[in-house]
């Protein structure tokens, strides 16, 4: 597959050409919107309401029109952006793009559909109140970052309370604003499909605004322990983490990312946490670590995600903290260092096994702010860091004394067991 | 067990070619092989499917196939001789291969996706653990804890708990009635001896299909498979038992009550085995009912605020089975109200209401089938279920299978599936 990335003013355009591809994958993502609970609620509403009819189509006939082409259009709100994603067979691309243009330029935005979308979203958010894994993560970010800060995720109960007072006019205003923002567009398919899509992109509304960098303000004194009682669950979901002061393009990033992968590579069994907490001690089914929220120029945080049975939560967290302390104080072994160079190289090869995965990868890279060449350079640095720099980065930034533990689940018995972790 | 010297001739006979898939069988030990090329990606996916699943377990030993799947990531005889950890785990830890396994009703599969230079290593792992796994309490007891942990993870979900109870109530005799992971009580009672007996009974080249998909030619695939598996001896695999389900004589119900906030209503409907025409009819018709925003029950319940989600569908199982349709109720909406509403709605359906849904869904399913083959790993997942049902010839046939489905067929099928006397209805109530 041939990958090209280019930036022209406020447009980042990326293409992945796979000869003879019979599928097309297209993503259109906005620049970051300023973060607030209200914006979160409006964006979630927008993702439904936008698809509720356009031009001569009702919501029903519009979805049907896409389906008849074998195409699918989704609109999502995540990480402070709105993304439109189109999956389509090559043979029907031009018709799908006409429908897409209609969605963007002539959405119906009927009041009836607004009421329906609001009710549907309310029901979904009510269900999310029980999502202990998400709640543990959200609670972690609430203590790490100031409210209004980009990485401070919004609790579903807050979104629900904002949702109640939303008005159609606000979402209409959001629509106009979204299509004035800079955007990142990535298309994967045959050369003909890519050419057709690039032609379509020229018909989109022009970006007329610039956006300031994301506001990221860490709290001065994050809590050591945060617990949320979700009595309906059987397990305690856990998120452990802390802020990082560097962005991906900073010198410290590759070494720290390498070291964090050794500790808890996300997915699979290679990370130390999986070998110890899961395999040797049998305390959990999965336990992984990664950095979150970083971009080329903005800092983020690191997070461990896992769960434990209520009776095992103290043991599980103790074991996890032990492993964090060990890797900080004793570093990584020569074998781990050698293995992870290979693992991180393989990771890139495997990510490009399919057209869809390659398109998604390139798109994600561009949203981070990298050109494809910068990203290749970043990966090259990542797989050639020195063992010493990895150990220095871990010692400096993975301090077990400054992390936060967030737990969500049935707290009747677990709360007492967790209390010991409130102190360092 | 030593490897035979590398041979250039293979002993695989071609069974068939389906589009870009070639299917072979080893004339010595009966192992099947599937090859499909993805030139220039630099990636190979190997996937080995054993014809053993939860349906092959007896009462008191449910979940054994799944437990054994976990154990296949433990050391083999060769690993112990090398004094190293399990080769399968080392593959991930040294190379970063994508690897995993899963067990289902009719089969168990193990897959690796990796840069192509590691082919020999991947095949060595599969050949060794096919016949030389060492089962000991040292490895087994912590892993059993992990499986119990996995059980608790699933059991934490109301939809899982309800689906387990529904299947066990809807089916009296067929082993599809128990969930793949098994009952917790059975998991707690596993022993190494039970696992060993199950392993010896079902793990053999004659009970396996190896897939070699990706940046590898057919010639190399056949030669590599022969090199690594050709010398293995087939063992006698017991004849699979088939249990017939007794005729259901009336509506069945199950109620689960647990502390919580979520309320679910679910229907278990009985359908024919895959890949019969009746299975395709049932699969399509249920998708018209619950698949996505453009589905009948989504409009009836989600769009009107009565539910937050509807979902469900058939499984491509070889024998007749139950499909589960699940509805997450909105706050303050009762199970009884929605049960009555759904059944009345389905009973009153007509061709005119169904007609606009048929062609869009047909197109969507045809394209979804194409997307499912984007990349060697995705293709491996798709082919696994065809192999499990001994239905590889179905590959690429979705368009033909769906071509005969009309609004009349959908209507008739839904009315048959939802005949009240054949239903099992489940309530999950939060208290």
Strand order of the largest sheet of chain B: 1-2-3-7-4-6-5
Low-confidence stretches of chain B: 1-9
Mean pLDDT score of chain A:
95
Give me the count of strands of chain B: 12
Biggest interface between chains: A-B, 58 and 67 residues
* Structural class by SSE content of chain B: alpha+beta
Which helices and strands occur, and which strands form pairs?
The complex is a heterodimer of chains A (424) and B (431).
Chain A: E1 2-8, E2 11-17, E3 23-30, H1 37-49, E4 53-54, E5 57-58, H2 59-68, E6 72-78, E7 81-89, H3 93-105, H4 111-128, H5 132-144, H6 156-163, H7 168-178, E8 183-189, H8 191-201, E9 225-229, E10 236-243, H9 252-264, H10 272-280, E11 287-292, E12 301-308, H11 313-330, H12 334-351, H13 355-367, H14 372-382, H15 387-397, E13 404-409, H16 411-418
Parallel strand pairs in A: 2-8, 9-13
Antiparallel strand pairs in A: 1-2, 3-7, 3-8, 4-5, 6-7, 10-12, 10-13, 11-12
Chain B: E1 12-18, E2 21-26, E3 32-37, E4 43-50, H1 64-71, H2 77-82, H3 87-95, E5 98-103, E6 108-115, H4 119-131, H5 137-155, H6 158-170, H7 184-188, H8 192-202, E7 208-214, H9 218-229, E8 252-258, E9 264-271, H10 277-290, H11 296-302, E10 307-313, E11 321-329, H12 335-348, H13 351-371, H14 376-388, H15 398-403, H16 407-417, E12 424-430
Parallel strand pairs in B: 3-7, 8-12
Antiparallel strand pairs in B: 1-2, 2-3, 4-6, 4-7, 5-6, 9-11, 9-12, 10-11
Helix pairs in contact in B: 1-8, 4-9, 10-16, 13-16
Overview of this structure, please?
The complex is a heterodimer of chains A (about 425) and B (about 425). Chain A is of the alpha+beta class. Chain A is built from 16 helices and 13 strands. In chain A, the strands form 3 sheets. A 6-stranded mixed beta sheet of chain A has the order 1-2-8-3-7-6, sandwiched between helices. A 5-stranded mixed beta sheet of chain A has the order 9-13-10-12-11, with helices on both faces. Chain A has a two-stranded antiparallel sheet with strand order 4-5. The longest helix of chain A has 18 residues. Chain B is α+β, with helices and mostly antiparallel strands and about 425 residues long. In chain B, the strands form 2 sheets. Chain B has a 7-stranded mixed beta sheet with strand order 1-2-3-7-4-6-5, with helices on both faces. In chain B, helix 4 packs parallel to helix 9 and helix 10 crosses helix 16. Chains A and B meet through helix 2, helix 4, helix 10, helix 12 and helix 13 of A and helix 3, strand 5, strand 6, helix 5 and strand 10 of B.
């Amino acid at each position: 597959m041939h990958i090209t990335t280019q930036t022209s003013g406020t447009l980042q355009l990326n293409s992945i050409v796979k000869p003879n591809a019979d599928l097309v994958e297209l993503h259109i993502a906005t620049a970051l919107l300023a973060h607030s609970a209200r914006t979160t609620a409006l964006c979630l509403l927008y993702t439904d309401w936008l698809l509720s009819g356009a031009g001569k189509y009702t919501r029903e006939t519009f979805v049907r029109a896409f389906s008849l082409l074998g195409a699918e259009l989704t609109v999502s709100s995540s990480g402070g952006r709105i993304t439109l994603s189109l999956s389509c067979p090559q043979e029907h691309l031009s018709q799908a793009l006409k429908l897409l243009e209609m969605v963007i330029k002539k959405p119906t935005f009927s009041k009836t559909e607004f009421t329906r979308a609001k009710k549907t979203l309310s029901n979904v958010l009510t269900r999310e109140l029980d999502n202990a894994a998400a709640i543990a993560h959200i609670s972690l970010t609430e203590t790490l970052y100031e409210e209004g800060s980009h990485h401070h995720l919004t609790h579903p109960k807050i979104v629900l309370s904002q949702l109640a007072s939303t008005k159609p006019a606000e979402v209409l205003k959001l629509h106009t604003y979204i299509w004035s923002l800079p955007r990142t567009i990535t298309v994967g398919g045959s050369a003909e499909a890519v050419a057709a899509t690039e032609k379509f992109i020229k018909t989109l509304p022009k970006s007329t605004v610039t956006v300031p960098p994301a506001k990221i303000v860490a709290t001065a004194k994050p809590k050591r322990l945060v617990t949320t009682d979700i009595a309906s669950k059987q397990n305690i979901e856990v998120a452990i983490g802390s802020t990082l002061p560097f962005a991906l393009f900073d010198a410290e990033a590759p070494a720290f990312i390498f070291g964090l992968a050794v500790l808890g590579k996300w997915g699979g069994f290679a990370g130390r946490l999986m070998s110890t907490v899961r395999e040797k001690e049998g305390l959990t089914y999965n336990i992984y670590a990664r950095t979150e929220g970083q971009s080329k120029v903005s800092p983020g945080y690191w997070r461990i995600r896992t769960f434990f049975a209520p009776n095992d939560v103290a043991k599980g967290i103790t074991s996890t903290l032990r492993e964090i302390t060990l890797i900080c104080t004793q570093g990584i072994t020569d074998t781990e260092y050698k293995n992870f160079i290979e693992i991180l190289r393989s990771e890139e090869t495997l990510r490009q096994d399919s057209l869809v995965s390659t398109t998604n990868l390139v798109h994600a890279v561009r949203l981070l702010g990298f050109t494809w060449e910068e990203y290749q350079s970043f990966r090259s640095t990542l797989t050639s860091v020195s063992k010493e720099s990895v150990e220095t980065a871990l010692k400096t930034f993975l301090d077990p004394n400054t992390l936060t533990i967030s737990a969500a689940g049935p707290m009747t018995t677990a709360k007492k067991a967790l209390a010991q972790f409130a102190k360092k | 067990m030593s490897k035979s010297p590398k041979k250039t001739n293979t002993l695989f006979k071609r069974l068939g070619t389906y589009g870009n898939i070639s299917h072979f069988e080893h004339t010595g030990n009966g192992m099947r092989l599937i090859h499909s090329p993805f030139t220039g990606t630099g990636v190979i996916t190997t996937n080995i499917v054993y014809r053993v699943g939860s349906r092959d377990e007896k009462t008191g030993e449910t979940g054994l196939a799944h437990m054994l799947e976990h154990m296949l990531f433990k050391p083999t005889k060769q690993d112990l001789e090398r004094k190293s950890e399990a080769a399968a785990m080392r593959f991930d830890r040294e190379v970063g291969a994508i690897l995993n396994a899963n067990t289902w009703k009719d089969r168990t599969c193990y897959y690796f996706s990796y840069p192509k230079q590691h082919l020999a290593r991947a095949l060595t792992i599969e050949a060794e653990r096919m016949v030389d796994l060492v089962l000991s309490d040292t490895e087994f007891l912590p892993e059993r804890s992990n499986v119990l942990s996995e059980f608790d993870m699933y059991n934490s979900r109301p939809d899982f708990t309800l689906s387990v109870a529904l299947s066990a109530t809807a089916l009296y005799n067929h082993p599809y009635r128990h969930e793949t992971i098994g009952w917790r009580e059975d998991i707690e009672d596993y022993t190494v001896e039970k696992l060993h007996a199950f392993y010896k009974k079902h793990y053999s080249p004659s009970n396996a299909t190896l897939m070699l998909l990706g940046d590898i030619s057919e010639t190399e695939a056949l030669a590599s498979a022969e090199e690594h598996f050709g010398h293995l001896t087939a063992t006698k695999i017991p004849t699979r038992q088939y249990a017939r389900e007794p005729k259901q004589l009336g509506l069945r119900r199950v109620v689960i009550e647990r502390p919580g906030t979520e309320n679910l209503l679910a229907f278990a409907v009985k359908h024919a085995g895959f890949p019969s025409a009746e299975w395709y009819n049932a699969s399509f018709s249920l998708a018209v009912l619950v698949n996505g925003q453009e589905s009948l029950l989504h409009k009836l319940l989600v769009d009107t605020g009565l539910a937050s989600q509807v979902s469900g569908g058939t499984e491509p199982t070889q024998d007749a089975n139950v499909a589960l349709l699940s509805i997450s109720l909105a706050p303050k909406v009762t199970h009884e109200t929605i049960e009555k509403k759904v059944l009345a709605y389905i009973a009153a359906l007509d061709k005119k209401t169904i007609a606009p849904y048929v062609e869009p869904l047909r197109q969507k399913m045809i394209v979804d089938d194409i997307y499912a083959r984007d990349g060697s790993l995705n293709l491996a997942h798709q082919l696994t279920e065809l192999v499990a049902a001994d239905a590889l010839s179905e590959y690429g046939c979705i368009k033909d299978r769906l071509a005969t489905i009309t609004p009349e067929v959908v209507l008739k099928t839904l009315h048959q599936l939802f005949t009240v006397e054949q239903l099992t209805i489940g309530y999950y109530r939060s208290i």
